[in-house]
Every structure is written in C-alpha cells, then in structure tokens.
Amino acid sequence: MTDETATGVDRRTVLGALAGASGVAVAGCSALTRERDGQTSRLDDETAKELAREFAPTLYFDVHEPWFPTDPRRYASERDGEPVVDGFDALDGYHERYSAGNPPDPTVFYRAVEYEASPLAAVQFWFYSAFDQFTTNFHWHDWEVLHVFVDTETDEPQLYVASSHSRKAPNNEFLDPEPETVPRILSELGSHSSALSVNDVPDRFQRVALEDLLADVTNATIDGVADLADVELPIAYGLPRDEGSRLPYVVPEYEGGPLYDHERLPSVTRESLIDSDLTIRSYDALTSPPTDLPTRETGLVFRHREREGDADIEYELVPTGEIEHIAAFTGPQLSFEFDVPDAVEDAVAGHITATETPWDQPRYENPAADITAPNHRAALADRYEAIGEPAPINTVVSRVTEAVTADDAPEDEGLTTTETTVESVALLESDPEAVPTFGGVAVLRDVPAGDHRLTVNGAGRAPHSERVTVSDDGTTAAGVDGEIPLVARNRATKLEVGDGTGEADLSAVAVEDDFAGRLYESAVDGGDAVYVHTGGAYTTEVRDGDDAIGAYRINPSPGAASAIRIERPETGTASLSTFVADIAEETREGVSTHRDGDSDANDDDDTATGDDDRGSENAVTGLERALEAVVDAARRAADEARAGERETADRRLETVAERLQRVETRLSEASDELPEPLSKAARNRLEQAERRTEQARTAETL
C-alpha cells in the first residue's frame, strides 16, 4: 500500500474499506449455487425443541479460553428506541460476573427450519461470546454456528457444517455422520471457530483418516493444481493448534492503547484476555517466528443439561426467537497490524468492528448457504431438489513455508525451504479479509476472476506480496509451484526493483536462489519490492512489456541494514551479458579465495611433497583462469550490445558459450579439490550463466 502522497488514497480510506468488509466477513456464506435453494419455513416449537435436544452438541474449549457461550440479553440496552448490545457493556459485564471455572449464563441458542416440499430440515446451534481475539483480527461480540442437516423421514443426520472464520475460509464439514453420534465442537481459542469431532477421540481434531480413526471432516482435497498434488489435505480450516501448528495471538488496541486499559472496562484486566504466553503486541514485534507458543490443551467441556455424560458445565438451550428483538451488536473499531511489502510504505492496518446479528444473515433463513464444500453441496443436491447444485468457484491456494540457509551451500550463499510450525495469515487486498493458514496451507475461496494482490504475513516474518491472476472455474496456485516462502525479519532485506517513479516498463519480476531455485515470481506494473533472505545468493529476472528478459546478480550481506535497489532495470543482450560476467566473477572470487587459503596452508606444511599439491593447484588455477576468460568475454559482449553492434555482440557471446564449456571441464577437474559447498555453488551458477548466455544470444533487444 503506497502512501497518500503517491496515490491520493489516504490511510483513513483504507481503514474504512477494511472495516466495511467486516460485515461481510461474518456472514460466512457466498453465492455458491447455480440455482436457488428452496424456501424454508420455521419448524413448529415442539419439533424444533426435539431436534435441538437430539443433536445438542458437546463443546470442548481450550484451557486458555476466556469467553464461553453466554446469553447476551443481560447486557442489552436501548439506543434510539431499539435494544442493542454494546461491546463495552457485554465485555465488562461478562468479566464482572465471571469466575474461573464458572462462566456466567452458559447458553446455546437454537433454531430449526425445513425446506418446503422436502424432507430436509436443519437445526442450527448459535453460540454467542462477548469478544473475539485472534491472530488475524478481533472484534466485539462473536457468533458461531453449527448446522445439522436432518432427513425428517429417516431421522438421520445428513451433514454437519461448523462455521469457520469467514466466507473466505472453508468451514469444517462432515457428510453422513453416524446417527447415534452426538456432534462435538472443538472451539478454537479466542476466535471460537468451530472444528468438528466425530471420531473416537472426542477432544482432538483429526484431519485425515488414520488406521481405524475417522477423519473429522469430509471436505474435498485440493484439486486441479498439479504443483499441489502432494498436499492431500481436505480444504477445511480445522483446528491448527490441535494439529501441531502454532498461532500467535495479537493484543487488541483501541484509541492507541491496549483494550484492557480503557476506562469503560473496569472489570477487564490483562489477565482477562488470551494468556500472555500466546500473545504478541503486533506481527512485526518479533525478529523471528516464535518457537515457544503452547499448542492446544483441552479445558472446560460444555454439554446440554439433559444429555448424559461427563462435562464441566451444563448449558441451557434457548430458541433464537427469544433474542431476535435485539437490533444490533455494536462496538467501535479495533486495530491490528498487517504489513504489506511495497517500495514506498510497508504497513497497512486492518480494522474489524462488531459482528452482525445472526437473523440478518442469509444463512439464518437458508442454512445451505453456509455449505462451503462443493462435494457436500453436490451430495445434498443429488438427494434433495431443495438444494441447488454447486456452482464453479474460484479458489486461491498456496503452501506457506520458511526460507532458511542450506547446509550444503557456502556460508550465507544458498537457501532451502522448510515446513513451518507457526501459522500465517493471507489477505487479498482487493477483498481485504485476513484468512489464517491451516497446516501451512493458505486457501482463499470465492475469489472473483481477474488480477489480485495477495499478501501473506506471519509473526516474526517479513511480509510477502504478489499479483495473482485468477481465472473462472478453477483453482489458482499462488507463489512459485504453489509455494510461498517467508523470511524471518532478522534475516530479511528488501529488494526493490524500479526507481519508484513507475517509469520502468516492467511486466514481471522473479527471484531465484542458487540452491533453493525460484522463490518469487510476480507480474508487476513498473516496479516491485520483495523481501529476501540475507543468507541467499540470487538471480533477479525482469521482463518488460515486450516480454524481453534482463537479469541481475544479487548477493546481500548478512549485516546489510539498507535495502538493495535495482533502480533502472534493463532487458536484452547487454543486461544478460553483464549478469553472466557478474556471476562468473563472483564464482572466480570464491575459487580464488579458496586457492589462496590452501596455498597459505601448504606454505606452512613442511612435510608436503609438492607434487600432489601442484596438481591440485593447477586444476583450481585452471578453473579460476577459465572463469576469468568468461568474465572478459561477457563484459565485451555487453559493451558491444550497448554500442548497438549486434553482430559483434553475437560473436562475443559465441565466445562466452565456448568458454563456459571450458569452465565446465575445468570444474570437473577441480571438483575434488574444492569444498563440496563451493563446488555445488559453482555448478549451480554455471547452469545459470549458460541459460542467461543463451537468452542473450536470442534476445531481440540489445
């Protein structure tokens, strides 16, 4: 996000747009059907009560959970002649009455509807919490829901749909549960996102089937993206902290200070919020990803008072009709940080305000609107005419990994990527709604076709941002081969391409590391900025509007404090020839440094015979001289290209290609005398130099 002097769009406008998105975010549904679902009508009170009692879920909460399902009516007041629940009143009133192990007014609200001319019915269980504190956002009030779709002719459940964070994050769903299985909800700490539990381990989430243990969701896996074929994960949010991942929570702020310091919240203290062991002040407050965050541990268990079984708390079942008179759940905007890498400004804040009332949401009247798994909607549509077939839906997916230094590379000159145990958040700036990853996988559903900017951020990491082009009816893999590597802040430096004026005619930028390969690739509009790991050695590739290619060698210093800038990137033969000279010279210097070090060691060794050492020295010296010859020929080719002498430049490039072949021979001869990391680096760079030489020879632009 650029600053207001550069774009004319000020920070207040951005924050207002983000706040406006929050009302949509809580709706939890989207236009997912080709044809309309059938109309519903409310079931009679007695039938609704029977269904609610039959399927009343057991609720499992995290040991650190501060906000349990309660009755908001106690905190209602009148505003402009209508009853509302104010966020300050609800949060402070809840904590005034709360005591450890004894949360006030444990309540679950229910509602049941039937689809007209159909045996399909749905009973909904609505859970109200006074506050939502999470890693991607927080807000006053929180409403979550479990939909149980039931066939009234067979009295058998057809589908469970447990609400996740937003319409962009896939819900947790289970098709055809066993009729005798009581639905169980594993509530995510702070956010109350609802994971399902249907297997024999009641308080743990199981994403995939394991031996005799059922999976807790039946959502379809990622499909249509070959690069993610090995990610056999159901597209469901799940419960990341129960799956070995870690989530840092953020402290909510209001009017520049932590929320618990506000004068209207005398009963709220720091201890009222998520435990400090899980909390950071902002995503950029850490220099590296946190490693000591505790994973999930079960705390209080809630069950309906008429159901048998062990539980800590018994809750009341109350029909939603008794609270539909509440006109609104209100509260001022709260803030959290979300960094966006850009050449001008790095920070944009997202603000979330209060939640909608359930009875104003489409899924209240039509529970099927909340089915996010197309395979589940298709199954119900096949059984019941009242449910429309699933429509094509555009999804953006990517694996978020971590870039770290490679053990087999020279020190601070090569990377690899590893799985991450700390979850991140993803944001489409065209629809600014932050979505958490699950198992390191980012999934954003229901994305309009066209160009978007995707930003991924994580605690202690530098943010990543790229342009993604989404086509209709399919899954789009973001990143390179479906992978987005993030970099720890304490090892990150910004690479800026373009001079910030927008005059450069660039259409794409890519960054490759010598060992990890291509790490970043994005369409651009004139310029770009990306955070890179200071322990890598990079080739930065640029393309212009005519698809001509240029390349630049980047090898950042681990201690560099300032950004690296390619101010006026060029494409064509001159740029590519210069790159070949630079990478050959970099490799020559590494070989020379090793040779000089070995020579010093040999000079100090009185027992050396000299013959073998002389052979080794000759092989390494031959490699160094071959690289020097490449440097000379490549620089001459670049000079001729800049002078407009195509024929001469082409002859020079033929010489470069021949001399690179000689380097390959000399490298084979000297490999046994070079450290393995240096030998591997030289081979990787040789491949890069050969590829760029060929591009220089075929380039139409000098």
What features would you highlight for this structure?
10 helices; 702 residues; alpha+beta; Immunoglobulin-like; elongated; Four Helix Bundle (Hemerythrin (Met), subunit A); eleven-stranded mixed beta sheet; six-stranded mixed beta sheet; single chain
Number of domains: 3
Shape type:
elongated
Strands, count: 37
Uncertain residue segments: 1-33, 342-354, 605-613
Mean pLDDT: 86
Nearest-angstrom radius of gyration? 30 Å
Main beta-sheet strand count, sense and barrel state: 11 strands, mixed
* Head-to-tail CA distance between termini: 34 Å
Q: From the helix content, strand content and strand pairing, which structural class follows?
A: alpha+beta
Which percent bin holds the helix content?
Answer: 10-25%
Strand content: 25-35%
Number of alpha- plus pi-helical segments: 10
Biased composition (Basic and acidic residues): 588-598, 684-702
Region (Disordered): 588-620, 664-702
Biased composition (Acidic residues): 599-610
